[in-house]
Amino acid sequence: MTNKMVIALVDGSAYSESLCHYAAWVARRSESKVKVYHVMGRRDAPEKLDLSGTIRLGAQTKLLEQLSKLDAERSELTKEHGRAILEDAKKIIQSDSDIEVETRLRHGDLLEMIASKEDSGDMILIGKRGEAADFAKDHLGSNLERILRATHKPVFIANRNFKPIEKLLVAYDGGPSSQKAIDYIANGPLFTGLPVTLVFAGKDSVSIRESLNQAAATLKDGGLEPEIIIRSGEPEQVLAQVKTESDYDLLVMGAYGHSRIRTLIIGSTTTTMIRSCRLPILVIK
């Protein structure tokens, strides 16, 4: 990691606590700082009521003054809520070890914030669902695919329950993005010494085995312990089968590829995959 900084995006969801523990895990392994952002979007702004057509004379002025005061109070309450979320996040991240944490409260569009700040970080961590994912279109949960498309940084998608990462499951299709994921795992400090399982979903062939063996050699050179699995079937089905057969802690995938693995992350089934997979997911761009 070049910047020695990871960016964590938190809200009031059930996923944020787990995300903070994963941020701490990443920071410890990479000796990085953590910058935590809470972004107050449009849905957090006070609603404006136009009652000017139903009130008259002095009553209008008095009511507008009261509404203005109420808006100001609600705005300050929203900010206090955001500050409390950031304070809790910082405490959770620093509870495991002495990690340097910075917090930032922002108002505006989440993607615009990421675009302006991502170059300062080596990784972006987000939760699988936002605090109001079922109701608010513009919150973290429904923005996952947009974030994955927009950023060029690795994206760590936290699940609800934190578990220390001790064993990796890697979706491998032999494409450039898949190889980039292998290089990221092998050359960085995050996963040194951990067992890794490379899974190829599809028809076995000499070229595929050569590609997998090369990937395994790269991982060995990086101090990891690779295992290779080749199994026919659709990627999402094969990955689900392999996961049930062993206790994995993280799924690592390239964002682009020449097989259907690409559609699991960048495509129409993005939300379904993220919701159905009970592992955290690291997407390498």
List the defining traits of the structure above.
alpha/beta, 285 residues, Rossmann fold
What's the arrangement of secondary structure elements?
Layout lengths: L4 E5 L5 H16 L2 E8 L16 H40 L4 E7 L2 H8 L5 E5 L16 H7 L4 E4 L9 E4 L4 H12 L7 E7 L4 H16 L3 E7 L3 H11 L4 E5 L6 H5 L4 H7 L4 E4 L1
Parallel strand pairs: 1-2, 1-4, 2-3, 4-5, 6-7, 6-9, 7-8, 9-10
Antiparallel strand pairs: 5-10
Helix pairs in contact: 1-2, 5-6
Short characterization:
The chain is α/β, with parallel strands linked by helices. It is built from nine helices and ten strands. It has two domains: 119 residues, Rossmann fold, CATH 3.40.50.620; 117 residues, 3-Layer(aba) Sandwich (Rossmann fold), CATH 3.40.50.620.
